[in-house]
Design brief:
The complex is a heterodimer of chains A (112) and B (112). Chain A is mainly β. Chain A has strands spanning 4-7, 10-13, 19-25, 31-37, 43-51, 54-57, 64-66, 76-78, 87-94, 102-103, 107-111. Chain A has no helices and 11 strands. The radius of gyration of chain A is 13 Å and the shape is globular. Helices cover 0% and strands 56% of the residues of chain B. Classes of the chains: A mainly beta (112), B mainly beta (112).
């Protein structure tokens, strides 16, 4: 079955620690996206990538980093510089913009 | 930048029709989207409409687009308790950036 897999489902971060959220897709999509969702709010764009080896900052990129070395994978690192990382993180992909984006099941990140 | 607005809450009785409304600001959007989010889950693409269409029907879902007023609506016929969720409207940003802007979501509560 084709889809988007995010792992882990739950993640805990200690002070000063970097953590990496995984996003893998087997839909042969060119574009991939990371969003952050806070309780009761909509989605805010962190980073996006339209093609391998290229990515752009979204609205809230500070304290986050990404890489896009393979078409299938777009990992997100939440660095210690992100002072309020507790949120629900959603990864999405699409064939290309502006075709519909399909979402993974999300990773919930909390602070220990 | 683009702004997408939705009402926060809608309550209907099972079997009634639900109408969720959305307004957007970017008139150049190619596609407009509706997503559904159940608790603790990712976003599920429900339907989308191409900007040269006025209406799109897909089983119980009807999307109406009024480009003049920049108004989008999602009608769910014969609403069921399983339709209880948060519904997000999304449109392209008007900045040239290849990204979507999401509304804050409308929580639909279906009463038995």
């Amino acid at each position: 079955d084709g889809g988007i897999t995010q792992s882990p489902k739950y993640l805990f971060r200690k002070e000063g620690q970097n953590v990496t959220l995984s996003c893998e897709q087997n839909l042969n999509h060119d574009a991939m996206y990371w969003y952050r969702q806070d309780p009761g709010q909509g989605l805010r764009l962190i980073y996006y990538s339209q093609i391998v080896n290229d990515f752009q900052k979204g609205d809230i990129a500070e304290g986050y980093s990404v890489s896009r070395e393979k078409k299938e994978s777009f990992p997100l690192t939440v660095t210690s510089a992100q002072k309020n990382p507790t949120a629900f993180y959603l990864c999405a992909s699409s064939y290309r913009f502006p075709e519909p984006q399909h979402f993974g099941d999300g990773t919930r990140l909390s602070i220990l | 930048g683009e702004d997408v607005e939705q009402s926060l809450f809608l309550s209907v009785r099972e079997g009634d029709s639900s109408v969720i409304n959305c307004t957007y600001t970017d008139s150049s959007s190619t596609y407009l989207y509706w997503y559904k989010q159940e608790p603790g889950a990712g976003l599920q693409l429900l339907t989308y409409i191409f900007s040269n269409m006025d209406m799109k029907q897909d089983q119980r879902l009807t999307v109406l687009l009024n480009k003049k007023d920049k108004h989008l609506s999602l009608r769910i016929a014969d609403t069921q308790t399983g339709d209880s969720a948060i519904y997000f409207c999304a449109s392209e940003e008007g900045t040239g950036r290849r990204a979507l802007t999401f509304g804050s979501g409308t929580r639909l509560q279906v009463q038995p």
